[in-house]
């Protein structure tokens, strides 16, 4: 009889078990939020070494590229 009662107590859902699960979830959420905030702050502090470049759209392929100098700068010897 004692063994059957011990098994039912182990599988019963109690207020204490629910409260403990809620506390664990709250700690997990806070920990995750702190990590995300720290990562965002570090990314904002660290300058990007390279700027992201998008490939030219099909309409830009025939004309100037995205990084080309304007024609006024080319006429003035803006090239290197």
Automatic annotation (TrEMBL):
**Domain Voltage-dependent calcium channel alpha-1 subunit IQ: from-to ranges:** 10-44
InterPro entries according to UniProt = VDCC_a1su_IQ
Q: Compositionally biased, Polar residues: which spans?
A: 66-80
Q: Report the Pfam families cross-referenced here.
A: Ca_chan_IQ (PF08763)
List the residue ranges of the region (Disordered). Answer: 38-80
Q: Which domain of life is it from?
A: Eukaryota
What is the name of the protein in this document? Voltage-dependent P/Q-type calcium channel subunit alpha-1A
Source organism per UniProt = Crotalus adamanteus
């Amino acid at each position: 009889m004692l063994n059957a009662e011990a098994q039912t107590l182990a599988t019963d859902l109690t207020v204490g078990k629910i409260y403990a699960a809620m506390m664990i979830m709250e700690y997990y959420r806070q920990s995750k939020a702190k990590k995300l905030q720290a990562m965002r702050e570090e990314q904002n502090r660290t300058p990007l070494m390279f700027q992201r470049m998008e490939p030219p759209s099909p309409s830009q392929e025939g004309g100037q590229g995205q990084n080309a100098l304007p024609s006024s700068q080319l006429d003035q010897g803006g090239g290197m």
